[in-house]
Amino acid sequence: MNKSLLSAISVIVIFICNSFGTAVAAEQQAVKQHPSLVITAQDVVDMRSEIARDGRFKKEFQDKKSQLDSKLALPKQVPVPRDSGGGFTHEVHKNNAQSMYDAAIIYQLTREEKYANYVRDMLFLYADMYPGLPLHPQRKTDSVISAGKLFWQNLNESVWLVYVIQAYDAILPALTTSERKTIETGILRPVALFLSEGSPHTFNTIHNHATWATCAVGMTGYVLNEPEWVEQALYGSDKSGKGGFLRQLDELFSPQGYYNEGPYYQRYALLPFVTFAKAIAVNEPQRNIFSYRDGIVLKAVNTTIQLSYNNLFLPINDAIKDKGLNTIELVNGVAIAYSVTKDAGLLSIAKQQDKVILTGDGLRIAQALDQHLEQPYPFTSMVFQDGAKGDEGGLVVMREKDQALVFKATAQGMGHGHFDKLNWLFYDKGAEIVSDYGSARFLNVEAKFGGRYLPENDTYASQTIAHNTLVVDETSHFNGDTSVGNENHPDLLYFANKDGLKISAARVDNAYSDVEFVRTMAQIHHKQLAHPVVLDVLTVHSNNVHQLDLPLHYKGHLMDTNVALDTATQRLAPLGKKNGYEHLWLKATAKAAMPVSQITWLHDNGRFYSLSTISRADMKILFTQIGANDPLFNLRTENAFILRIPSAKQAAFVSVLEPHGEYNPVSELTFTANSQVKNITHQQVGDIDQVSLEFINGPKLLLLLNNAKAFDEKKLNKVKIGGKQYSFRGRFHLIDLTDN
Predict the structure, then answer these.
(1) Which fold has domain 382-387+394-736?
(2) Choosing a second label site near 56 at 20 to 30 A (CA), which of 188, 275, 335, 454?
(3) In 10 A of CB 9, how many CB atoms?
């Protein structure tokens, strides 16, 4: 071979090698950009440094690694789906997603290939199974639009992909081109397309199911370099903006960050909202997602925290009452919000959660807590407006000392909403005192209806009688029709906090065709009262005669009443036949005691509580217990009493809830076990409600209310009581007559 030919061949070889080297370098450079969703490459550098020193982050890393090593020693399971929520296959696939996510993070922090290989091999198994899967056999029989393949509903499929795409993103540096192709074509792309093109009804709706779907598909689009998927996730399948993640931010939250379905579902939806927002911020910072709609994502995190008492979320609508501030959704939300805002109040919530996530945001939380930078979180009394424009009522939270009074004047809350306009709850000394049932469901307990909502969720928990609000003719608000309920909402008249009085009022004139009712809830603090008291004024107006029921569901043991009980001691009967009444045993009846009826119970927190209510001659009091027509024992056994006016066009229910005294069984100490309410009076003259409260050896108060529809705040209200003239402007006026 001559020199010229050798020289030419050498040039060609050098060119090919240089080109191949350039391609490899380019590929390596692309790989170096991963992870690139919630965790970034810089986060990984910082986290690796942090696990080299003692602190919260290192401890979490060691704990997670130890747990994961135990899992990796077990055989991999990817069973053919067959079970609904809580069943074996459901839990295996859910746990596989979490394990893959954890292993991918540990791989990034240790660079030990066994963790990346675990994720890779698990995804190989899914890639082999998923393309041939039909719709899940346990999907809801009445519809296939919400069905999944791995899971009984596509919501769970979305949650699965949210975790799995982050795992895949983190192990990309350890995969060959062939391995990536197998995983992407066999499992990641099929799941993403099933959730978007294959489930357009869910993907494009304005609902928490769609939030999870858009988060999953959008993040998959970022990782697989599919910008079209990202656009569809943001703006809907047709990219018109009628659906998608941004429309959900516009429609599902009020301007203050209150989520339409209530705190329980706000908690659940929070994770995809903050996760996708963080991924958008990392990949497309120019979108300024955390500033979108005046920082609505960050407001949502804070509102979720505010809508809690003693660590648990306020259980309105379809709520499971055990969920609280330590849920993983809020752990992520607090970490991401703190990274953006550096709000030291969030650190106190993170400290209370006592859990650190292995992300860059979790790292920043851990470092700040190690430096003791936390400040008390400012829980406050306020209105959380409902509706996209904040004009569809709201949830009022009044806090005083260790009390919280919750006044529910919200919109329906879509399919998870209950028929309980102007319902209320009360908490004191760390406990629920006036309660709400929440949802009838044992989440992921397969033995109880597959972990789904029980039939009694419809027949009892969502019906009006299950709540602490007005029931007319034993019929639920909006006749139990969710679509009608979604079209209507209460009018929140006002909220104020001044001079020892927190007060709010709202009106409902559409829950029943010919009935209007207005409710005023007030939390009154006075120096002569051992504890703040709650005043409840509910007025009813109709052109026709109706039966009016006002239930109060209480936690504790009935201690005393001033009414004569006719108690069923031999045989029980249901209170009614439908609308939730069929689930209530009627345990006792009584005629109201004139002029004020009083009922006292003792809570496990060691405090007594009395409800004192103005009586009228025809008022009855019904004592009930849940459990009738419940053959499978699906419902919890809880107690209530119902104030009943059998026949009236106009009525006023005026009551005072009074915390008092103490019972200590250890020291055998009991004091102030009896109510200190001496008298309550009420009359309505024109537009003004006049309510007087008098306590034994305590204050005498007069509250004047103007809840009129046609209200002029500039007009001077004038009333004459006992020969004395009172005047005030505005909706209310509290007068202390103690020394008069």
Answers:
(1) Beta-galactosidase; Chain A, domain 5 (2.70.98)
(2) 275
(3) 11
CATH of 34-201, one of 2.60.40.10, 1.50.10.100, 3.40.50.2300, 3.30.1330.30: 1.50.10.100
Cβ count near 708 (within 10 Å): 17
Mean pLDDT (the chain, rounded): 93
How far, in Å, are 693, 697, 705 from residue 682 at the CA level?
9, 21, 11
pLDDT digits 0-9 by tens, 359-385: 999 999 999 999 999 999 999 999 999
The type of residue at 284 is E
pLDDT reported for residue 145: 67
Longest dimension (CA), the chain: 127
Residue 270 predicted with pLDDT over 50? yes
Query: Active-site residue numbers?
Result: 265, 416
Give the burial class of 401: count Cβ atoms within 10 A of its Cβ; 0-12 exposed, 13-18 middle, 19 or more buried: exposed
Question: Whole-angstrom Cα distance, residue 157 to residue 29?
Answer: 32
Residues 584-602 have a mean pLDDT of 98
| CB distance 548 to 539 below 8 Å | no
Report the alpha-carbon distance of residue 199 to residue 206 in Å, rounded. 14
Local confidence band at 142 (pLDDT 50, 70, 90 cut-offs)? low
DSSP string, 581-630: GGGEEEEEEEEPPSSEEEEEEE-TTS-EEEEEEE--TT-EEEEEEE-TT-
| Structural Rg of the chain based on CA atoms | 30
Domain ranges of the chain: 1-32, 34-201, 382-387+394-736
What is the pLDDT at residue 499? Answer: 84
Strand ranges, E, within 439-500: 471-472, 491-498
- What is the structure's pLDDT at 23? 43
State pTM to two decimals. Answer: 0.92
Tokens of 165: 């795409």
pLDDT grade for 141, boundaries at 50, 70 and 90: low
Residue 341 has pLDDT above 90, yes or no: yes
CA distance 414 to 462: 12
Q: What pLDDT score does 143 carry?
A: 56
Q: What is the Cα 250 distance to its own chain's centre? A: 18
Inter-residue contact 653 to 550 (CB < 8 Å): yes
State the residue for tokens 């034994």: 696
